[in-house]
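agent: user wants the full assembly modeled, not chains individually. Plan: 1) parse entity lines 2) check alphabet per entity 3) run joint structure prediction 4) return tokens. Steps 1-2 passed, two entities, 816 residues total. Proceeding.
--- entities ---
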Amino acid sequence: MSQLEAATLAALLATFLEESFEGLDRAEAGLLRLDRVPDPEVIGDLFRAIHSIKGGAGAFGVDEVSELAHIMENLLDDIRSGTAATPEICEALLAGVDELRASLRDRQDGRPQRAGGHHAIVARLVALRGGPAAQAPAAAPAAAPPAASWVVEFVPHPGLMLGGNDPLRIVRELVELGAQVTADTSRLPRIGQLDPTELHLGWTLRVPGSVARATLDDAFAWVEGDCVLTITRVELAQARTAEPTAAAPPARGDDHTNSRELGSLRVGIDKIDLLMNMVGELVITQSMLGELDTDGPVDSERAAQIREGLLLLARNTRALQESVVRLRSMPVGVVFARLPRLVHDLGHKLGKQVELVTSGQGTELDKTVLEKLGDPLVHIVRNSVDHGIELPAERLAAGKPAHGTITIHAEHRGSAIVIEVSDDGRGLNLPRILQIGKQRGLVAADAQLRDDEIANLVFSPGFSTAPQVSDVSGRGVGMDVVWRHLKEVGGDVNIETTSGAGTRTTLRVPLTLAIIDGQLVRIGQQSYVMPLLSIVETVELDPTRLKRLGTSEVYRVRDQIVPVIDLGAAFGLRARAETTSRLLMIVEADGAPLGLIVDELLAQQQIVVKSLETNFGRIEGLAGATILGDGHVAFIVDIVALTRGVRRGGQLAA
Amino acid sequence: MAEPRNPTPSTGQLLTFVVAGEEFGVDILRVQEIRGWSRPMPLPRTPSYIRGVINIRGDIVPIADLRERLGIESLTPGPTTVIVVVRVEHASRNRTMGFVVDAMSDVTTVEHDAVKPPPELAETSTTSMASGIALVEQRMITILDVDRVFPTPNLHDVDQAA
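--- prediction returned ---
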């Protein structure tokens, strides 16, 4: 096999695996719906998914996968033509999906194939099918492979051919005996250094075990001493072990690791086309500006043209940037896909009936953010099933339907994506949470907290409410992990609960991490950035509408009372009394308005968000920093943190 | 952390500088660059010795005032004032930070034997940051452990790095 062929094959295999995993996810989702509603469309989709995997696996010689897929396909075909999809069948098919996934993952990671690991599940499926065993071709390949084989590694010295020996003759001879050949071209020199009289190839031959050792020795008798020759006998189990490694030339292994580390992204053609158009326009703008770069004075006409060109350039850049952001975006449905199976399995295990309803799967957000969202979502849903949803008897006693419902909804809200996970379970045990909070010293023993404040204590590090550690959740790593994951992507999480009626967890993450629209403001001598989308309005501050409430201040905007923070004082730039500004910016976060006193509105611009945590640490009230056009640093105000601070009565302002 | 915390292989090089008339040194392997003074953007809600952050080729780098950190009154920056940018390690996480000194001195090679542990004096900000005193001819150079000059990241950040 040439390097090129190997590379092509590796690429094809990678595509096959990627598609197969997607197919399996689809099949899994379909199976989970199947035991409730036998929708012909779902069955058709399922059938197709498994069928494609079977075909691909056959082509790539992943026998145990094609074998298992085949019997699953038969079962699905039965269902399609009217056989009832009993829960047993669905469970067995789900187990089959798991087994397929495991086999393909082994293949992907270059791990040895587990010989016969699929037999049990194949047998289970065949038994379920109940049809004549002859129809199941499962048994056929099991008999075929030889009990053992010889692995011959033949690496001639470069001078072998000078002695008049033709290595191909030997190779051909063995092929006639049924050998499979792999050439090792890794030692080939570059073409410039290649001496055609020298031999730089090596071969690995797999000869059936039925061939006598003496025959092998004879074949190599003439080249003894001119080559490195190892002949090993491999029993079946080991032969399978050796297979993938032997079949894969080194180049393929390397490619593979790389692609795994870097990760890949499947992007719709339309997005790429859009990007291409943008680049086209950028090129046109560039050439237009280039034409203006001629000798001679810059008169007012040329200045106007340059200005127009720059304006166009700004528009192109912005459009380009938006389409690149879109390129990195993926629908949240990708992370939702893991949840139905989780809910299904957990519900079974705990004897609870749980239905999962998802909506807004098409909402798109940045891939990096999305990846961080997967684990928290799983954790929250697991908590809901384990602690939230009651046992059917308990639910009926409480006058609720026997099956619990978990609803997940995603939507855009301003510059953020909001994902709500609600259940109709028993709700959080607030007195217990408060008690633990006090025990762990998270709140003062005599603290008076509102319900929502108590609920949000579960996000404190090391907090876990499970009275005893269950198999499912409550191992001490709890919601604080959720909180931390979300903080990492600049997001936030909030929990609301009603005793006996359920819990709602709201995750909020930014659309993208990299670039936001910002309003620059002056506070004292410094520039700060307000995320443009949180700004509601800016009003002239009328001192008669300002009122002190203890250490806080509020302002009346029309009929609304809004808490006020003087950012100059909050950031320690001056005392509150020194502030003479008459500018009040009304911002909104978590649905609550907040007034911020600033000195002056400066430009609006797109800013690239830089983390302060890279070289320093988190600073309460700042969401990050950015570098302005003149090279100076400006900080980005964290509106959400300020709003929370005001609600907690935390004196950010004093 | 494979690397020892203190610059004490058999010989080592120190970048030395002057703060309030005293000579200090840091392990030269930790130094990333030396920059002329540029006014940092003040960072709210941080210890007073953090002067703010500056932009170094697109990186946001916090700057400490070494005078203030040492408990000496800080100076108005003059023509010799420079910022030494160093690599700081906390909990196996590398960060880039800088500190302001009055003036640069030179690069001095120091024998391992010539570094004496700091005498057991009452804990002051200086003694808590010093890893030793190097005796080079007539000079006495206080060796600063850069990791102790800057605040450790809070617990949350450490978790993240781990």
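agent: reporting back. Residues 11-161 of chain B form a domain with the OB fold (Dihydrolipoamide Acetyltransferase, E2P) fold (CATH 2.40.50.180). Chain B has one domain: 11-161.
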